[in-house]
Amino acid sequence: MVADDPAVAVAEPKVPASSVTPEIQIELYRLMVRIRRFEEKSAQAFMRAAIKGFCHLYIGQEAVAAGALSVLEPRDAVITAYRDHGIALARGTPARPCMAELFGKQTGCSHGMGGSMHLFDRAHQFYGGHAIVGSHTAVAAGLAFAQQYENTEGVTLCLLGEGAVNQGVFAETLNLVSLWKLPIVFLIENNDYAMGTSVSRSSAGLPLVNRGSAFDMAGRVANGMDVEDVRAKVAEAINLARTEHLPSLLEVHTYRYRGHSMSDPDTYRTKEEIEEHKKGDPILLYRRRLEERHVLSDTLAKEIDEKARAEVQDALSFAEQSPEPDLDFAFSLRFSVEDQIDPIPRPRYSDL
Amino acid sequence: MAKITYRQALNQAMAEEMDRDPSVFLIGEEVAEYQGAFKVSQGLLQRFGAKRVVDTPISEAAFSGLAVGAALYGLRPIVEFMNWSFSFVAFDQLVNNVGSLRFMSGGQFSLPMVFRGPSGGGTQIGATHSHCPESWFAGVPTLTVVSPAFPEDAKGLLKSSIRSNNPVFFFEGERLYGLEGEVPDGDSLTPIGEARVCREGGDLTIVSGGYSTHTAISAAETLSANGTEAEVIDLRTIKPYDFDRIAQSVRKTNRLLIVEENKPFAGWGAQIAYDVQRRLFDWLDAPILRVTGLDLPQPYNGKLEAQVLPNVERILAAARQLLA
Known about the structure:
The structure holds 2 protein chains of 2 kinds. By secondary structure, chain A is of the alpha/beta class.
């Protein structure tokens, strides 16, 4: 249903927040706990140098992935930046290939070629983990373009950090998606810090959701510490994209408890600030709310937590025991097999 | 066989492939309503409609990235850069996304896409508009780089490139669009990775590509008038280049001259020179020489630009040095 005044066309969500069933509530809670436990396990593995490179944890932001991805259908496409573990898990990628990818193993969801920042899972229409800030927003527009071209009625959800809004390609992309009415939702996960630079030190024209106004895009703000609020706002936006082919921009306020990456000494904010935010922890708050609603018992909460711990322990063992990919395998990935033309010779240049 | 221009050959290639495969679409600045800045896409909008011939704002990064997403999803985009010099605005998309996404995903995705447009100097439009960035992109391990010199190959290679399941960077000679040549009728494909011998000769081998091939042929004709026969090889595909064809010729002539418009430092000719000296050292009677664009930004001044580009005089001087 569309409001009477077309200038403020707001589609009604298919599933209003009030109708989140107890089963869905439990699943939202379970997913947040699974992501939290996965990230805690990743942090431990990183500390003992089993995970290398960069490792950006999602702890504190779980309600965003859980709420946003809970309203998607399998035909929809998801793409995000480098803080991607929680997004992959929320999209349905099992913990084992996720953890194995962090370990750089053959069994990882990107076969050890991507690492923490580049998780991909085609089977679940998860188009990656992307580590050049803002770069993937244009790729996201292409997914939506293709969905529209092929009349799939699928939509694209593109998550980005708030630091990405200052990349030029993001502005170019907002212009394109609005001009061409592509079925896409851009969700800014605003955790206040682009690495160590706060929003107030990096961005003019706050709130960031205003970045869509210049391109006539629908905008919404959500509380990223409240999984049901995220879910409701994303549902509205997804519905708008699916039924009206109108893109929108959401700004979701969240907070990360850990550093930008595991290598971050966190010198740009106070311990008090972090502790203050932890009082609004999305898992804690939701657990209390579900207990008040008599949806979640203490026993069930414990069971969910134990299962999540067992799951990530199993994923860790799987990752540890998995084989490393070899160089020949890596070379085999360079090119797709040709099926419409003759094979192209693919020498390895200067290969001594 | 019909005699058509290089421009028409490219146009036919796109039209035929768009006819053949509904997932092929063309996107870029002025490709639709304007009919192409160089008229390469003339008539395609009328024939295939706005859904498949897509005009963009001046946003190279966004429309290149958009094409990447569309390719990941399974479409086959042809992206036109009005000039390859403008592609640098989208360098991140081209190198990081086109160059890495298939690999970084562990091979889950393909990128069946073509980036094409005019490149090179010689039209007095200054340093920012005269780049020949073949070698910059050839430096990315997963990219295929093509640079046809003749209408026949412009058509045959573009058709092959569109049908390839891998990203192809297709460099057209801005100065070649009006060149006429015989082009076979029907569905004729030029294989990617195969060079062509344009002119046979036994005294030295000249390897070139794109517009420089024509300069090399002119120089070879002058040499011939003076009794020296140069074999001219047109690479057609820059990467992967046809080593075997070059080797066959060098084993006969024992002398190799490489002519390329790229700037000298690490231009593709340097890779060929390395490979040939490493594998055919005993066959060479003289050091391999290269004639390249001079190590300068492109000057606007016409006389200077003619000196900066590989030209017949510099090729003749290099040939004399090789044969001395």
